Amino acid sequence: MTRSALESRATDDRPWPGSVPPAGGATVRVASVPSTHVYVRHLRPPSGPSPFVHLPDPDPDHPSRSATTKWWPPVMLRPEWAATADFDVFHVQFGFDACSPEDLSRLVGVLRERGKPLVLTAHDLRNPHHPTRELHDEQLGVLMTAADAVITLTDGAAAEIARRWGREALVLPHPHVVELDTMARLRRERALSTSSEFRVGVHIKSLRQSMDPLPVLRVLDETIRDLPGAVLQVNGHHDVLDPDGARREPVIAQWLEQAGADGRIDLRVHDFLPDPELWDYLASLDLAVLPYRFGTHSGWLEACRDLGTTVLAPTCGHYADQGPVLSYGFDETQFDADSLAEAVRLAYGTRPDHGASVDERRDQRIEVARAHDRLYRELLT
User: What are the start-end ranges of the H helices in the chain?
Assistant: First the structure.
């Protein structure tokens, strides 16, 4: 199946559910790993019945029960679960970093014995939580080789997959992250704002392995001093910034504490933000800077685009393929301070709107859902 052929059918006007029904019923039952993740939830159409259903995530502590929020480590990736569960298609999205390559090979064997199609969506070609790439490459190698179909989010990632594994990946864009009604409300509030402030945000969370924020923050600090009305806001979690934090990083914590005390940054320390607070925070920014030195794709980037917040992304990975962003040079081998400063000044002077509208996101989600439905049904024939 070629990418262009599926895309042409993904955008047509044929009603749900589509082409050939799966064996045993009209609705495709998908064992999605996981099913509660926002990306997976938004693979289904935004309204009306869905042509496929995602089985609920089993609770890792009680696999016989479904989980509403806790899904890691994924029970569905256990070969013994896959050997008896009732599903039509097995679709791996996230969470396989919890499994050894040998465990994944055993899972693939079970799926083959049962004749169940395996779909892989390759979100991360370099795991942002791993300091080196070797283990993730092995895990990906098992799944890439065995998958009946591979999906990814960008043309750049598809080209990398073709180069590294010889697989042709179907490219389907990342659907919206923020719920459509919330997205519409926060965009209306942004449009009514009369503030002349230019707020730049860097969110370091709990400093996962892919992040290297200190060189980025130093350049932003120097650049923003020359921009009237510009504010640098830095958010981080207690575990890395508190004096007694379990994962405290003293160098960056001390720099942030001093910059905050000097009034050069707006420092905010907290734990994980619930979604309503997170969306309010992102919507309050004019520019969100991603301090990553490696990675592939970003749901954070998509949430910013939902809310009309311009993203300044590094040149590593395939962030720039996800949608319109500003870029600066940063990866595991180099950091281009001048390109970062130049991009900030450009955003300050032009205030670009690189977001996606509610209507665009709704239409995109319908197309993405339709494309998944077509793919599942073709695999089942």
Answer: 3-10, 38-41, 79-82, 101-114, 134-146, 155-165, 180-192, 213-224, 238-241, 250-261, 275-283, 299-307, 337-350, 358-380
Residue 5 has pLDDT above 50, yes or no: no
Q: What's the CATH number for 180-355? A: 3.40.50.2000
- Return the biggest CA–CA distance within the chain: 67
- Using one digit for the tens of pLDDT, what is the confidence trace for 206-250? 999 999 999 999 999 999 999 999 999 999 999 999 999 999 999
H or E element in which residue 311 lies:
strand 310-314
- Asked if 97 and 126 count as a contact pair (C-beta separation under 8 A), the reply is no
Domain 3-176+361-380 shares a fold with domain 180-355 = yes
pLDDT confidence of residue 68 = 56
More confident: 6 or 68: 68
**Distance (Å, whole) CA 327 – CA 287:** 12
Task: Give whole-number Cα distances, 338 to 17, 105, 219, 328, in Å.
Answer: 51, 46, 9, 8
Distance CA 165, CA 234 (A): 39
Give the pLDDT score at 3.
Answer: 42
pLDDT of residue 18: 34
> For the domain bounded by 3-176+361-380, which CATH number is listed?
3.40.50
Rounded to 5°, the CA angle 297-303-306 comes to 125
- On the question of pLDDT at 161 being above 70, the answer is yes
In the chain, domain spans? 3-176+361-380, 180-355
Confidence at residue 195, expressed as pLDDT on a 0 to 100 scale: 87
Q: Extract the tokens encoding 199.
A: 């707020």
Distance from C-alpha of 338 to C-alpha of 329, rounded to nearest angstrom: 9
Would the pLDDT of 283 be above 70? Answer: yes
Report whether 126 contacts 133 (CB < 8 A). yes
Contact 95, 130 (CB under 8 A): no
Pairing between strand 58-59 and 62-66? antiparallel
